[in-house]
Amino acid sequence: MAQREPEEQTTFDQVLKLVENLTPEAQEQLVDQMKLQLLRRELGKAEGPLRCGEGIPAEEAFAQLEERYKRRKAGK
User: Using the 8-state DSSP alphabet, how is residue 21 labeled?
Assistant: First the structure.
């Protein structure tokens, strides 16, 4: 069953008021769900090029990550 389009666009301020009425636990769950949704969206963006063979080999990716880790560790 398709969702009906709201007759009126919900404003950002209205959403904030709704969130403020949530319990702290529910607010935390909402934040976690939003982070998860953003992560899934970013993974979805990355998946397309990988399926087309546009990614880099795993060995190269891990070497880059290791180098980045070493630079961060040395900077602290």
Answer: T
Task: Answer yes or no: pTM beyond 0.70.
Answer: no
DSSP code string of 25-70: HHHHHHHHHHHHHHHHHHHHHHHHHHHTT-S--HHHHHHHHHHHHH
Buried b (16+ CB within 10 A) or exposed e, 8-27: eeeeeeeeeeeeeeeeeeee
Q: Are 46 and 57 in contact (CB under 8 A)?
A: no
Task: Give the residue with greater pLDDT, 38 vs 53.
Answer: 38
Query: Which of 4-13, 18-27, 41-50, 51-60 shows the lowest mean pLDDT across its residues?
Result: 4-13
